[in-house]
Design a protein that fits this description.
TIM Barrel
Length: about 375
């Protein structure tokens, strides 16, 4: 059975030969630690600095090579890839003010996060704006150069591995920001009808066809609905505002004959019945608070589960703790199919290589079907 067959069988709630393993996202430090070389794959500030200096081609060459090599060498049955930056891409080079602070030409301020290695927007218009730089203009349509990573992954692994696209063009440097959350929550409370209509228009304008036409096996979509202690909204608000657009997105995936892979951070147990009703088939970013074995007991074969060992434990825990989580997940969720093993969210910058290797090794020990203690 190939890795591609293994993932597909698990998503159909059938038992493959071995529990498949795949990650939604892997930050650069783990790839560097295990491959033993520098990489620009999800390289955060390091990636941005290379792009500022005109290194688009070097960045993309590293990204496509390293994610494929990592999948080959470290037990990945599938891989999630994205469109590349277009040829010529060179974003505005931010001005560094001190060892942790940068500004753009508009005066917005950004700060380096030692925790995530991101450059994060933290203040709008913190300084007087400067004259606008001569900014790079993106192509109006998807350029052939943007397929470079996906095409390489399909060429190298498409026959054997489950290749998942993470939709969206990379036409600007994405600076994480917490400044959007408060106004977003206020709008949800004050103007739910407008938010619902905006979401509907966005879903109606979404088309995943180009990824399937290119040869991808599936797409990984989703959004965050909650925090560690529950959803951001009531189940009633979720049904009225979010579900209509989610139904449309799920239908756009289902028309290609594949299950919907949905990423959603937070403890979403109060919403999962509605997520299934909307058409979500596989749930990823299963945090420890949600209890993945409990999810399996409650929702059984209505929902495939993608996760199983804690992102947090990967950072602060030991290999034996990771092994225990892998064992508990496989024994509790794998019988009958429906499980893809992976971290509870992603492999973050501070995750320990020895912990990830322990997860791979424990899967090899206990993940062969039939599953038994």
């Amino acid at each position: 059975m190939t890795s591609k067959d293994r993932v597909a069988a698990a998503l159909r709630h059938e038992e493959p030969d071995i529990v498949p393993m795949m990650e939604f996202a892997i930050d650069y430090t783990m790839i560097e630690d295990l491959l033993g070389r520098p990489t620009f794959w999800r390289a955060k500030l390091k990636e941005l600095q290379a792009l500022w200096d005109g290194g688009r081609d070097e960045v993309v060459a590293s990204q496509k090579r390293d994610i494929v090599d990592f999948a080959r060498e470290f037990n990945q049955d599938g891989l999630a890839v994205n469109l590349a930056y277009p040829k010529g891409f060179q974003p505005e080079k931010l001005q560094q003010l001190d060892h942790e602070t940068w500004r753009d030409w508009r005066g917005n301020l950004y700060r380096y996060s030692a925790l995530t290695h991101d450059l994060m927007l933290f203040q709008l218009g913190g300084l007087d704006p400067q004259p606008a730089p001569d900014l790079w203009e993106p192509p109006a349509e998807v350029d052939e150069s943007e397929w470079e990573i996906i095409d390489y992954a399909l060429q190298e692994l498409g026959a054997t591995h489950y290749v998942v696209a993470r939709p969206g063009r990379r036409l600007a440097c994405g600076y994480p920001s917490a400044l959007d959350w408060e106004p977003m929550m206020l709008r949800l409370a004050e103007e739910p009808d407008k938010v619902r209509e905006e979401r509907l228009r966005g879903a109606e304008a979404t088309d995943f066809s180009m990824y399937f036409e290119r040869g991808c096996d599936n797409v990984a979509i989703g959004e965050d609905f909650g925090h560690n202690h529950g959803p951001f909204m009531s189940p009633k608000t979720f049904r009225e505002v979010h579900m209509p657009s989610i139904r449309i997105l799920c239908e756009r995936v289902h028309r290609h004959g594949v299950p919907v892979l949905w990423h959603a951070c937070g403890d979403n147990r109060l919403l999962i019945d509605q997520m299934i009703e909307a058409g979500i088939d596989c749930y990823q970013a299963i945090q420890p608070e949600e209890d993945i074995v409990g999810l399996r007991r409650t929702w059984g074969h209505r929902l495939a589960l993608w996760g199983g060992f804690s992102t947090h434990t990967m950072v602060v825990g030991t290999p034996e703790e990771i092994r225990q989580q892998v064992r508990e997940t496989i024994y509790g969720c794998a019988p009958g199919g429906g499980l893809i093993l992976g971290t509870s969210h992603s492999v973050t910058v501070s995750a320990k290589a020895e912990n990830y290797l322990a997860a791979i090794d424990e899967l090899r020990k206990v993940g062969t079907y039939p599953i038994g203690r």
